[in-house]
Amino acid sequence: MTSKTTYQGGCHCGRVRFRVRGDLGTASECNCSMCNKKGFIHLVVSPSDFEVIQGRDELATYQFNTGTAKHTFCKTCGIHPFYVPRSDPDKIDVNVRCLDDVDPSQIQTRFFDGKNWEQAIQGHLPWRDGP
Fold first, then answer.
1. Helix or strand run (H / E) with residue 34
2. Beta partners for 72?
3. pLDDT per residue over 3-36, tens digit each?
4. How far apart are the C-alpha atoms of 15 and 36, rounded to whole Å?
């Protein structure tokens, strides 16, 4: 059973704003080079639970390796509030650190070994939003 709540969030400068509906109990952290450097706490949701409410034109996208993940960031402040993940390219992965009025230190996250992505992904996707 999930406990979805609606949150709003955005980038540092405020040009990009979004609304998301999700369960923080599914949040995860990954030790891959990208997530580690960004300090990303993952909340993966379906596109129907996510909406950019301001600043879509303020976003830029970075892709590398397989090109599947679409790492979006604000062109002005450089913050990465959400992206399309390689593990779930049909979902949106929101950075919990970018949610308004949410204290990341109060969230118990799951761990994903992204340094060994190919092996770790075969077992399961700990942050999946339901079945």
1. helix 33-38
2. 61
3. 899 999 999 999 999 999 999 999 999 888 888 8
4. 24
Kind of pairing, strands 50-54 and 59-62?
unpaired
Q: Per the structure, how many domains does the chain have?
A: 1
Q: Are strands 110-112 and 28-30 parallel, antiparallel or unpaired?
A: parallel
DSSP β-ladder status, 70-74 and 41-45: unpaired
Q: Is residue 126 part of a domain?
A: no
Under a CB-based contact definition with an 8 Å cutoff, are residues 7 and 14 in contact? no
pLDDT digits (tens, 9 = 90+) for 32-42: 888 888 899 99
Q: For residue 109, what are its two tokens?
A: 């996250």
Q: Could you list the residue range(s) of the whole structural domain that residue 15 is in? A: 5-102
pLDDT in tens, 96-131: 999 999 999 999 998 877 777 677 777 655 444 443
Q: Is residue 116 a part of any domain in this protein?
A: no
Instruction: Please report, as a single letter, which amino acid is at residue 26.
Output: T
